[in-house]
Amino acid sequence: MDDIVTEDLSKSYPSGWPGRPPFVALDGLSLTVRRGEIFGFLGPNGAGKTTTLKILLGLVRATSGRAHLLGEPAGDVATRRRIGFLPESPYFYDYLTAEEFLGFYGELAGLSRAVTTQRVDELLQLVGLGEARTRQLRKFSKGMLQRIGLAQALIHDPELVILDEPMTGLDPVGRKQVRDLILSLRDRGKTVFFSTHILHDVEMICDRVGIVMKGRLVASGRVNELVRQDHIQSVEIVCQHIKTEGNALIHSLATRVLQQGPQCLIVLPSPDAVDVLVGEIRRQGGRLLSVTPHKASLEDLFFHEAAQAVSRVPAHVTSGRVS
Amino acid sequence: MGAIGVIAVNAFRESLRDKILYNLVLFAGLLIGLSVLLADLSITEHHKVIADMGLAAINLIGVIIAMFVGISLVNKEIERRTIYTIMARPISRSFFIMGKYFGLTLTLLVNMSVMLAVFLLTLWLYHVPIEPSLFQAVQLMFVEILVVTAIALFFSTFTSSTLSAIFTLGLYVIGHLTADLRAMVANSEGVVGKAVVDLLYYLCPNLEMLNIKGQAAVGVSVAPEYMMLASLYGLLYAGVLLTGACLVFQRRDF
Ligand SMILES: Nc1ncnc2c1ncn2[C@@H]1O[C@H](COP(=O)(O)OP(=O)(O)OP(=O)(O)O)[C@@H](O)[C@H]1O
Ligand SMILES: [Mg+2]
Hints:
The complex is a heterodimer. Chain A is built from ten helices and 14 strands. Chain A has helices at 49-57, 98-108, 113-126, 142-154, 172-187, 199-205, 223-226, 248-253, 274-283, 298-322; strands spanning 2-13, 23-34, 38-42, 64-69, 72-73, 83-86, 160-164, 191-196, 208-213, 216-222, 232-240, 256-260, 263-268, 287-295. In chain A, helix 2 (98-108) crosses helix 3 and helix 3 (113-126) crosses helix 4. The relative contact order of chain A is 0.13. Chain B has ten helices and no strands. Chain B is globular and about 60 Å long.
């Protein structure tokens, strides 16, 4: 069962000037989010993440393509009862108190007054705003607004939670809390789809990720599939009491040698040379302290894709000028 | 409570927390006070001046609130992006528009009632007879305000706040002039001019129809049939504009 399916989703915004072509924000984006998973939607600034999310919520109409949420077309009014949404930057009615604010969204979601009151209490506790419940939102700090926004998205206990950069504006404690919250949502069988440009968050909690660049999905899959865990990029070896200076063998194998007192750090470009180097350390009577393989991270993949996306553009431009 | 009700009640709450409304009520009190002052100067038409000024003040303030709050009603939500989380809820865009409209209507109703109460108190204090015609005038004023709010809301769904203000004010002024204009050109030779005025007459709201302040101030009532017809006309006009606003709003991107 798939909770979010988009097929060939495109969106162009009118340029506002007659004769100038419209700006293509999304360019045939297809992705699938399965029920019960945490899906990270990753991309640099201006990649089209918010645009995608807005289409899913029916705030913006796609120029072409299709999107379905929970089996219904995106923008279907009744389905939104089962969806929670946190927009990019929290802009809310600042004349309401935290309590009134959540109550308003509970009632909008069709909850009874009794249930709303109970949920408001629960969520204020959950996001750590119990003390600020009677304070007006205009007096909230940025992080507090982010938290109340999150509470608003969860007030009606939705099956599908869509969050646009839920961790921005939060301190390290807050980030961890949000990560734990997202994980606990999955434990309760909810589906979470969130956008971010912070790779660390994605690597830590996502079941699957999609990387979007310039309105296209350039990669998607499980984090460990994407970064191919078996593909070790480099190996760091720390040892003691060996002489590296003038040692041709070590210098020919290593990309970097760092000597600090008796301790020595040697970086190898691949795991192939580990055996040879360890043999050399033994031969000298040195002591091996650690061997650390460095895997390709999501970050490497991200920069790799970003570099490709950037290099694609000038090619288009030049070919356009030539023809 | 349905979604429209939730939106309406919240819109009402917003306007209550907006201090501007209180200030305008205060302003009404001041104007009425001024009318009393003026009445002291002109001894002859004492009663008429108080009634005139009072009705004019209620009307002016009602229209100002209707225009300015009406324009910002939906525009502000889009500009401040508060609309994102609302439209992500199980509520259709039309219901949102209607909820906002009824919220402001409720605000205006409360506001007008307070002003009317202050007005009646002033009349009573100065021993001015309270004629039924005064109530008739205020009722039609309220209908006019419903139309003005709908105009403001309609324009604000597709243009900027500034343009909406200009258009709404323009339509308001024209709405008060078309009947006169039509009478003026009725005997003229120019076919084109006549056609233009006719078009304006039928397109723009005939707001002068809802203005019976002049005769009401001197205690002359209108027939109940006129009240019915004029009210119906105003409500119909507001309904058409509101439908238009909903249709335009349906196709917007946020
Ligand atoms: N209403 C609009 N009119 C014109 N262009 C727009 C509009 N909204 C977004 N865009 C453009 O579409 C592109 C994608 O924007 P979007 O907000 O989806 O990016 P994003 O991936 O969310 O970026 P960020 O990480 O900075 O939030 C951007 O180049 C942006 O300028
Ligand atoms: Mg964004």
